[in-house]
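Summary for the steering committee. One of the milestones for this cycle was to obtain a three-dimensional model of the protein with 3-amino-D-alanine bound, which we needed before selecting residues for the alanine scan. The sequence and ligand used are listed below.
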Amino acid sequence: MRIAVVGATGLVGGEMLKVLAERQVQITELIPVASERSAGKKITFKGKEYTIVGMKAAIELKPDIAIFSAGGSISLEFAPQFAAVGTIVIDNSSAWRMSPEHKLVVPEINAGLLTKEDKIIANPNCSTIQMVVALAPLHKKYKIKRIVVSTYQSVSGSGIKAVNQMEAERKGEEAEPAYPHAIDKNVLPHIDVFLDNGYTKEEMKMVNETKKIMGDDNIQVTATAVRIPVVGGHSEAVNVEFEQDFDLKDVRDLMANTPGVVLQDDVQNNVYPMPLDAHGKDEVFVGRLRRDETQPNTLNMWIVADNLRKGAATNAVQIAEYLIDQFWSVKA
Ligand code: 2RA
């Protein structure tokens, strides 16, 4: 497979290269792509040196798959150009996520929607991915009516500038501000821009993407997305109301047996998911399962995942693996 990684010098792009190597995806040629400013620089992938190329050169190389993490405007401009030469694009930006012509995929949930005709495939937002991986099996069994979610999101979700700001603040040094307020020793109820309805784009991504991935517009979602000074992963406090009642033991068993989910729920021994533990891993970690005693058919849960991995790079690579397995592998 000739695979391009577009945005190879970014935080997520770097994670994509790491995940592609770790999961030993069948790559005959790697094409690292970045801005013209970075073209010509070298990267090392699986012990071999590669030269970063610009977008035009990458398109001319006609990769089989191009995994993008380069922002929405770059994707809107260049994803169609890659698709026009036969490349399948898996895009981590929000550009195509809510487009009715494009699929929004979490492989464990809806990879079956993909066909050979899909040339631009959207990777969901990190805070959405980890939530739906845990909730999809519960929706299937108990039918979700409403989700109230509060997130506690890693600074790495905002990019290297914000991580640098936090680390500089921690050392009492000056840094170029990525945020209008201090990040360290603070929490910021502000991720992405505010919209006319008073919610942020991040919060509305969770509302809209959840419906599309779960294939059910009746699911009501309300979200509060908060930035906190950690780097290992996003955490989410989720209150979910179902149409039907549930047995807590059945919920625990279901979580413990859901692909991609790890149940960490033994509060008597201080066992619960934390970003420090989730960092560098590909699973979604679920804990603090307990019935909401204030209303029927309602469950509280705590969901943690590495936002750069399952929240971005790993989910995108898993889509690529699915495509390779379904549409490229020579069936025995
Ligand atoms: C964030 N989910 O955490 C957004 C985009 N990565 O900033």
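Key point for the committee: The two ends are 18 Å apart (CA to CA).
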